[in-house]
Amino acid sequence: RHCTDVICCVIFIVVILGYIALGVVAWVHGDPRKVIYPTDSYGQFCGQRDTLNENKSILFYFNILKCASPVVLLNLQCPTTQLCVSKCPDRFATYIDVQASYRYRPDQWNYFRQFCKPGFNNPRKSVAQVLRDEDCPSMIIPSRPFLKRCFPDFSTKNGVLTVANQTTFKDGRGKTRNVTDLREAANGINNVLDARSVGMKIFEDYAISWYWILIGLFIAMMLSLLFLVLLRFTAGVLFWVFIFGVIGIIGYGIWHCYWEYDHLKGIPGSDLTVYDIGFQTDFKVYLQLRQTWLAFMIILCGVEVIIILMLIFLRNRIRIAIALLKEGSRAIGYIMSTLFYPIVTFLLIAICISYWAVTAVFLATSGEPVYKVMANQTLCKYANLTCDPETFNTTNVTKLCPGAQCTFAFYGGESLYHKYIFIFQLANAFVFLWLVNFAIALGQCTLAGAFASYYWAYRKPADIPLWPLFSSFGRAIRYHTGSLAFGALILAVVQLIRVILEYLDHKLKGTQNSVTRFLLCCLQCCFWCLEKFLKFINRNAYIMIAIYGKNFCTSAKEAFFLLMRNVVRVAVLDKVTDFLLFLGKILVAGGVGVLAFFFFTQRIPVFAQEVPMLNYYWVPLLTVIIGSYLVAHGFFSVYAMCVDTLFLCFCEDLERNDGSTAKPYFMSASLHRILGKKKLSPKKA
Question: What residue ranges are annotated as transmembrane (predicted)?
Fold first, then answer.
């Protein structure tokens, strides 16, 4: 063993150090409070401790009718004054009415002015001046907080949209308007609020049923282990039962097509052809034609013949595939620690995701408050230009664009760091993909090394090294970090290109340029295929690295040509393995799901008293089913890696050895019997 792809290893380490530095810089400049807290028109956080807005955690919009959509509201781009308040309005009121009655009803003024600018307490100021300077809102309407922002309290009464059981309201400018005018400004908010209520109930269900969910996942883990153990004895039975079942079902289909074909004989119109009746939206019409059933019968006969011929000519390769599956189960039985290695991969990926997410948030919140001119007039030439709130009132903007405001827009900056934040975000995403692929590669190489040590042990299990999994992990880290990083780098580049293409596709969805859309679709398809191919090549390259300790390119080339020399065996083994493992995942997830269904619906009398009271029983049920499938996938991914490793070792064994005393086979006796070659040389005691 020697270190491989040293240059890539050095680059990888330098990139990791640079990634850490990027995180530190983002941490210094970023401020996650910009995401957590809403920001008012003055760039101040609502609800932040030790500030004037400490007890004002909700954002209030002076005139929500000026907001085009909820997206505009959440992006703080609504062209109206935004103010931090302690609670949302709970009644209808207009500034005109409140001003007219403030002398004899001061309580109304005291309530209304809490939604005015801080410090404003001059009800004598004319309505026109107040609305021009936006000292107070022209109206307030009953609202409730959502995402720490005040939105109209919509409800439906007898199919009619209402706010606080009213269908009309005064806009504070002398007009009476229908509440449907608020729909455009808060479109879809009511549905989201309902979703929030559902979310709270789901959270409650998780809070009282989490330990039963864990029990269900533990049962799934035990069933996965049991299935892997039983594969040693049932792999062949499961496969052949399925194959003969398919043959039987297709045979029944052929008989049924012939029966329908014969039954329609003599019926008027049944002898017409598909060409005669043309295209019909009601497909039942085609089932009244003899030609349709004849076509079905011919197609099914062709499929049946192909399956039978494949079984006849590929029977020996299918037997080899099943024997390798059994051998894989035996190998895992000797190296049980490999079943729990996916936990290590999961933790490494979780660390990568967490670091990427935190860095992305800090990068996104890096910047100083940027203020822009928000004008009511669409023809104002200063609209959307940056401004300084401290000097805004002394400029000519307010004269040329009456009612214009210098309000907070977003966070940004003009420094070199702020100009390259987008590049930093791309770098953050790229290194994240590289690290995730490296973690996966490390897991594959580690498992391959452990299972290869099993195959190349002449006397099993006596010659299997002590702690094969830990030894393989140490070799992968010590000698092959560069090779694993090289393979992960290639895959990360392709994945980043796919992410960029997906982004471009999302941006171009509204365009009518069909040629551009077609080319983009072709590129997405090509890079998807390229990614799948690279994953296949990388996986087998890591196996060869674990076996021989060569660099990535050499290992990838040798693995590729070795597989091409055994391409039929590869195809058969891949499909047989995929089928059995998919069947195992369905059995585990389905079995645990059925058990969970009977439990959470109180259909198991013994545990009826133990079932928690749930809002939605499907919440823990779906969690258990999906979790069970993922648990089974984690265990079976180890099994799939084991089978792939044993297969490459098996192909190498056939090419390098001939079964003689000088070059004995390392394969198991069952595999040797299937090949029908020379007898195994007697193994030394």
Answer: 7-28, 210-230, 237-255, 293-314, 334-358, 431-458, 479-501, 513-530, 579-600, 621-641
At 61 the pLDDT is 85
Residue 46 has pLDDT above 70, yes or no: yes
- How far apart are the C-alpha atoms of 520 and 511, rounded to whole Å? 13
Q: How many CB atoms lie within 10 A of CB 277?
A: 13
Rg of the Cα trace of the chain?
Answer: 35
Q: In a 3-state reduction of DSSP, which class is residue 170? A: strand
For residue 287, pLDDT beyond 70: yes
* pTM listed for this prediction: 0.70
Burial 250-262 (b: 16+ CB within 10 A, else e): beebbeebbebbe
394 part of a folded domain:
yes
CB 538 within 8 A of CB 502: no
Cβ atoms 599, 307 nearer than 8 A: no
State yes or no: pLDDT of 302 exceeds 60: yes
What DSSP state is assigned to residue 513? Answer: -
Average per-residue pLDDT for the chain: 81
Amino acid 71: pLDDT: 39
Give 374's contacts (C-beta < 8 A, 6+ positions apart).
79, 80, 383, 404, 405, 406, 407
Q: How far apart are CA 52 and CA 62, in angstroms?
A: 19
Region 637-659: mean pLDDT is: 84
Q: At residue 146, what are phi and psi to the nearest 5 degrees?
A: -145, 130
For the chain, percent helix, then strand, then coil, each to nearest 5?
Answer: 65, 10, 30
pLDDT score recorded for residue 282: 63
Residue type (1 letter), 602: Q
List the Cα angle 168/171/176 in 5-degree steps: 45
* pLDDT greater than 60 at residue 660: yes
Question: How many domains, the chain?
Answer: 2
Inform me whether the pLDDT recorded for 20 exceeds 90. Answer: yes
- Is position 138 within any domain? yes
Range of the domain at 392: 371-412
Query: For residues 139 and 67, is the Cβ–Cβ distance under 8 A?
Result: no
**Closest Cα partner for 530 from 490, 586, 558, 563?**
490
Q: Is residue 384 part of a domain?
A: yes
Dihedral pair phi/psi, residue 155, rounded to 5° = -155, 165
The answer to whether residues 386 and 372 touch, using CB atoms and an 8 Å cutoff, is yes
DSSP label of 115: G
Cα(485)–Cα(434) distance, integer angstroms: 8
User: What is the reported pLDDT for 568?
Assistant: 81
Residue 246: closest CA among 535, 583, 677, 495: 583
Q: Provide, rounded to the nearest whole percent, the portion of the chain with pLDDT above 70.
A: 88
Distance CA 508, CA 501 (A): 10
Q: pLDDT per residue over 601-627, tens digit each?
A: 887 888 778 878 878 788 888 888 988
Which of 383, 412, 441 is the last residue in one of the domains?
Answer: 412
Say how many C-beta atoms besides its own lie within 10 A of residue 26's C-beta. 23
What is the token pair recorded at 69?
A: 């959509």
Which of residues 125, 147, 169 is at a domain's end?
A: 147
Q: What letters, b where the CB count within 10 A reaches 16 and e where it falls short, cover 447-477?
A: bbbbbbbbbebeebeeebeeebbeebbebbe
Cβ 37 vs Cβ 82: under 8 Å: no
pLDDT-derived band at 75 (thresholds 50, 70, 90) equals very low
Considering the domain boundaries, does residue 11 fall inside one?
no
Q: What is the DSSP letter of 464?
A: S
Who wins on pLDDT, 525 or 232?
525
